[in-house]
Amino acid sequence: MNGFSVFGRFALQSTSTKWFTRNDIITLSSSFVVRGFCTQTLTGPQKYALRNELNKKMGNAVENRDYEEAFRIATEMKSSQISPDSITLQTLQMVYFKLFQFEQVFQCFSEAIQLRIPIQRSLINNCIRAASELNDLQRAKQFLTFLEDGTFNTTPNASSYDFFLKCCESGYSKDAWEAFRSMQRKKIPPSEFTFSRMAFSFANGNDWVRLEVLLDIMKENRVKLEPKAFASVLRLGFESSSEKILNHLLFEVENNTAVQLKFSALKYMCSVFGERGDIDGLNLCLKRAVAMGLDLGGAYKISLLEANARRRNLKETLTLLCECVNDGALIRTDLFGTIITCCGTSVEVIDQAYYILLEMHQSGKTVPVQALNVILNACARKCDVERAFATFAELKSVFKCTPSVQSYNILIDSCSIAGQTSSAFRVYEEMKKNNIQPNNSTFSFLLLACVRDEDLDRSLAILNSVRENEELRPGAPIYIILIRKAARLGNQQLLSEFMKLHEKDHGPVPNDTKMYTKRGQVVYDSETFTSNYKDNSKLKYQKSQNQSSTPQQRKSLSQILSESSIVS
Question: pLDDT category, 550, cuts 50, 70, 90?
Answer without folding.
Answer: very low
